[in-house]
Specification:
Structural class: mainly alpha
Shape: elongated
Largest sheet: 2 strands, antiparallel
Number of strands: 2
Radius of gyration: 20 Å
Helix content: 55-70%
Number of helices: 3
Distance between the termini: 30 Å
Strand content: under 5%
Strand order of the largest sheet: 1-2
Order of helices and strands: EEHHH
Oligomer: single chain
Length: 142
């Protein structure tokens, strides 16, 4: 039976039927995995945003000014930077949704491990984002 309220305990099923904890060591290893996965999400988000900013700065240098540009521009040819940015966005979205599903196990320890991992990851990898990107979305699944 799946829990529908927040509970505390060592018996958790995370994401897959084969990822079950039944002892304290397996529970703490699972919490550590959730913590590291959350921090990795913030690292990947930082890489994606920096890559997007780098690609945008290169595109801005090669594009004509808005006054010289026609009103309706064609999209042009395929750009590898856009493709790579889309791939990174997809990976980050998948990681974010997996973290959300892990939190939906309703285990208090899993919830705290993921929130702590996101916070520490933000502190380590994204605390200087203000100078890179103006829009900041703190949602883990965005």
């Amino acid at each position: 039976m799946m829990h529908m309220t927040l509970y505390w305990g060592k018996k958790v099923t995370l994401l897959f039927d084969c990822w079950k904890t039944d002892s304290w060591p397996s529970y703490f290893i699972s919490l550590l995995a959730c913590f590291l996965f959350s921090a990795f999400y913030q690292y990947m988000e930082d890489r994606r945003l920096r890559f997007k900013a780098l690609a945008a700065s290169r595109t801005a240098r090669s594009q004509p000014s808005p006054i010289e540009a026609p009103l309706l521009r064609s999209k042009g040819r395929f750009k590898p930077a856009k493709f790579a940015s889309a791939i990174l966005f997809g990976v980050n979205s998948a990681i974010g949704y997996l973290l959300m599903l892990a939190i939906m196990s309703f285990n208090g320890g899993v919830f705290l491990a993921i929130v702590a991992g996101l916070s520490i990851g933000y502190l380590l990898f994204r605390s200087e984002d203000e100078e890179v990107v103006a829009v900041d979305d703190p949602c883990a699944c965005a």
